[in-house]
Amino acid sequence: MALRSDWSRRTCSMARGLDILGDPWTILVLREIFFGNGRFDAIKARLEVADSVLTKRLAGLVESGLLEKKAYDDGGRTRQEYVLTPMGEDALPVLNAVTIWAEKHLPAPSDKAHMYVIHSGCGKRTSSADTCTGCGERLTAANTSWHSQSRSEQPVPLSTAEVRKEAAA
Asked: Are 139 and 119 in contact (CB under 8 A)?
């Protein structure tokens, strides 16, 4: 999903990555999926985004291989929810890095407007996107929580590709 042009065939790895992950709505959609919020209406409500924008970002993330659709029963009606693929789960350090950088450098508009990356294994807040600065263990979606103070009093364990696939089976 290019912002302004197709960068998918550029010789620069960063440009190719930005072709998919360089749009703010895309990162925010992935945030919602990591929080376990994979249903269209729930994502739309949380992000306060137009249907057309959300539809385009979700389609692009599915086409790019970061998300897949899984059917669920909504009281007699089959609907689709979006879940991470292993490729999507591998984007976690990017989202962690943005969060950690923002917490370090940007003022929060309120005391509740903070989000921290927590290593569930040792319970420590980390200042690294891919490794716990408390114990040195590599961060994965399975051992990482996000503490968004506007969402919850406690850190929220992240959704993983494996957990979602097991739940669907």
From this structure: yes
